[in-house]
Amino acid sequence: MPVDPRDQLWIAVYETYYQSYYQEILSDALLTRWQRFDDLTKLIVALTASSSAVAGLVAYFSTNNNLNITWLWPVLSGIAALFAICHKEMAVQYRLRDHSDNMKAFSSLRLDLETFRSLIQIEPEFPIDEFKKTFEEFRKRYSEEYRRLRIDSFLTDGLRETCQAELNRRITTTTT
Predict the structure, then answer these.
(1) Among 120, 151, 142, 116, which residue's Cα sits nearest to residue 30?
(2) Number of folded domains in the chain?
């Protein structure tokens, strides 16, 4: 039995849709992780920036409660310095921007592919050559965005699996 090229195009469009959706979810998850790191770093640095207040509290509690916590201030200061150095060296601001841009780009592509898939469903006898060219433009967009992705230290196998499960849940929810 001959293979209908419309069916093959439908499958190819779905695969690109699925990959785009996955990259959108993954970029969002990485953006969230980097945002948490950014917020934590800013909080710790802000707390230790008011050094006289924190040092005074440590000294007060150490002398008034027979509780020796004089070690607390150097530890907090060291942690703050470490976070500040990591924040700068890991270029957190650039990572936040990149993941935000990636998420927006893949989200836009996913929504355009959803619209395209709807057109295919609405018009089952669609012109193959015209729709194939449109699909090729979508693949080109996907390839360009995929090439812009960077290796990320917060990207783990566990995060990939979590995002994959979330994608499968979303797709299952929308199709049922």
Answers:
(1) 151
(2) 1
| Closest residue by Cα to residue 151 from 26, 59, 13, 25 | 26
The torsion defined by the Cα of 35, 39, 44 and 46, in degrees rounded to 10, comes to: 140
The residue type of 106 is F
pTM greater than 0.85: no
CB 60 within 8 A of CB 118: no
> Tell me: the pLDDT tens digits for 141-161?
999 999 999 999 999 999 999
Residues of the domain holding 26:
5-175
Joined together, the tokens standing for residue 127 give: 């012109």
Per-residue b or e along 83-97, where b marks 16 or more CB atoms closer than 10 Å to that residue's CB: bbeebeebebeebbe
Report how far residue 8's alpha carbon sits from residue 161's, in angstroms, rounded to the nearest whole number.
28
For residue 19, the one-letter residue type is Q
CA Rg value for the chain: 25
Sign of CA dihedral 27, 33, 34, 39: positive
